[in-house]
């Protein structure tokens, strides 16, 4: 398996092996499990509460906004760790410090915008 395409053949073989192992485990689970369906087992279950009413419910948009804000700030936090390692390197101190303050300024503007639009208020 030498050459340029040899590496791709190896990756494809390992991928096929992984898929075969997962498919085999799922198949073994389906063949070995007990099957005794009862009406209680077939009922929709959520958080230990018996279902009441319709299956459709309205959700507030603010939940999704909170989720998006969390994801944005979690991704921003990921950028702080490489900055902390480069900041200590000789010759990069002032440059990386200025770049990080610009980055944090954009984040602060985003928080300020969300706050002024009253996105962050829960009520």
UniProtKB/TrEMBL annotation:
Span of the signal peptide: none
Localization: Cell membrane; Membrane
Membrane topology, record value: Multi-pass membrane protein
Swiss-Prot/TrEMBL keywords: Membrane, NAD, Quinone, Transmembrane, Transmembrane helix, Transport
PANTHER family in alphabetical order: NADH-UBIQUINONE OXIDOREDUCTASE CHAIN 3
Family according to the record: Belongs to the complex I subunit 3 family.
Name this polypeptide is given: NADH-quinone oxidoreductase subunit
Organism name: Nonomuraea composti
